[in-house]
Amino acid sequence: MFSRGLFVTVEGGEGVGKSTNIDCLVNYLVDNDIEPVVTREPGGTVLGEDIRDVLLRVDGSGMQPMTELLLVFAARAQHIHEVIIPALDEGRWVVCDRFTDATYAYQSGGAGVAVETVSRLEELVQGSLRPDFTLLLDAPVVVGMARARGRGDLDRIERQESAFFDRVRDSYLQQAEQNSARYRVIDASVELAVVQQQVKAVGAELLHLWSDRMNRRG
Fold it and tell me: φ and ψ at 12, to 5 degrees?
């Protein structure tokens, strides 16, 4: 698990403060001499960002769930081979804003694509690659969506009905329960200072584990 760089993902629904708290985590790591590659999904490459635009633009409201799923994995395939694996192979940490857990949450939990379909594509596109650690920022849907609306115009996915986001949240929490060794869940509905204290605590845990494993290798 620690034979190469560390792969950390940050997950969560709309309005949970992923961008702000990723900045907090990254700044903490940099202050402790770790300079991670910071990236996002969908996106992370020129091609991936083009696919992201297609996925999020409002005039794509007729997009079928399977079309959406395949576009997500197309962007991911490019991202993995162009950014993630090269960085990990160099021994660098990668901090990614969403990864395949989001696909299980949004395209399966939210949109209803069979879990088995997502799983087959995961194996095909990723092989053995999985995150080492996942930080889940969790908040009630009503809180998150109020924040998202406060940011301005909503994209195609943000315009889904509330029940969609309830299913997304349920999927995330179920994944966290099933993968408790990998997940750290933080209540993102409380004030930011409290959230970021917990984010830094996760950062400290990651540094400790990384140092311990590196010492064993040495």
Answer: 155, 160
Tell which residue, 193, 145, 202, has the closest CA to residue 20: 193
- Reference 19, options 195, 205, 210; nearest CA is 195
pLDDT of 55 reads 94
- Return contacts of 26-31, CB within 8 angstroms, 24+ apart: 26/95, 28/199, 28/200, 28/203, 28/204, 29/93, 29/95, 29/203, 29/206, 29/207
Which residue reads 């990990």 in tokens? 88
| 118-129 residue pLDDT tens | 999 999 999 999
Q: At what angle are helices 65-79 and 46-56 packed, to 10 degrees? A: 160
pLDDT, tens digit, 9 for 90 and up, residues 93-141: 999 999 999 999 999 999 999 999 999 999 999 999 999 999 999 999 9
Rounded to whole angstroms, the Cα distance separating 116 from 136 reads 23
Distance CA 22, CA 199 (A): 9
Only one residue has tokens 């709309």, namely 14
- What global pTM score does this model have? 0.94
What mean pLDDT is predicted for residues 146-174? 91
